[in-house]
Amino acid sequence: xxxxxxxxxxxxxxxxxxxxxxxxxxxxxxxxxxxxxxxxxxxxxxxxxxxxxxxx
Length: 56
What we know:
disordered C terminus; about 0% strand; mainly alpha
């Protein structure tokens, strides 16, 4: 049996914002699989691409 690996630690300097196109694609995927509007909003917010960061 293998041991679980520890998650990698990422510094703030290593983080980069996603492109507009990547965010739009993620929004489409989340909207397609969410069971309702509340779940969709919650998942988009968790990804940092919620309604407050609208890309249209």
